[in-house]
Amino acid sequence: MLSDTGNSGSQISESSLDFLKLQYQVLSERRINHNSLLWNVPSMLFVAQTFMWTITLNNKNNILIRCGISLLSIIVSYISFQMFERNRLIEVVDAEQMYSIEEYIRKRSPRENTIPILIIHHKLSARTLIDGRFDMISDFISAHPYYRQHNKKISLWKKASSDLWKIVFIFFFALSCVIFLYNFVDFLKWIVQLQSVS
Fold first, then answer.
1. Which residues of the chain register pLDDT less than 70?
2. For the residues of 119-186, what is the DSSP string, one character each?
3. Domain map (residue ranges) of the chain
4. What pLDDT is recorded for position 17?
5. Distance between CA atoms of 31 and 89, rounded to whole angstroms?
6. Considering the entire predicted model, what is its pTM?
7. d(CA 180, CA 69)
């Protein structure tokens, strides 16, 4: 337990600092793992959907197989979206916890400590630099020639990649539904043909 949680102005003890370092390391490793999982999901979805759509859109394949794979494609699209959202949520939570540790240590560090404590696990508007040229990293990005030039156009760097990927996941899910309906219509025609033959 932290001995000075009740007093925001008190300096942090060595035992509390060691405990926070251990927690920070665990959170950092877990966040890296979830970040890797997060960005592996889209690539796995592309591979899986390409394989399944190749089967479902080939009219030479059996209609039952095409319908089954089409339904599986919908399920895979939904599960991939859910995995992406879950890993993103856990990554954000870990980052917020790491940020709280950074803030806790920064506010309780001895004033004579000349080593600055960086805020690195938060949004750009809250991250800090060590050299003092800019208060926040967002100020550095805004002043950077490359990004300042693109500010006059479309500031894609300001868009969250996860939000753009959500649109892709929704598109994949919708397309899988359309392919399933296409194959389901063929399935109904196949049933009618069987009944007419019998």
1. 1-12, 109-138, 140-141, 144-159, 198
2. --SS-TTT---SSSS-SSHHHHHHHSHHHHHHHTS--GGGS-HHHHHHHHHHHHHHHHHHHHHHHHHH
3. 14-111+164-197
4. 77
5. 10
6. 0.71
7. 8
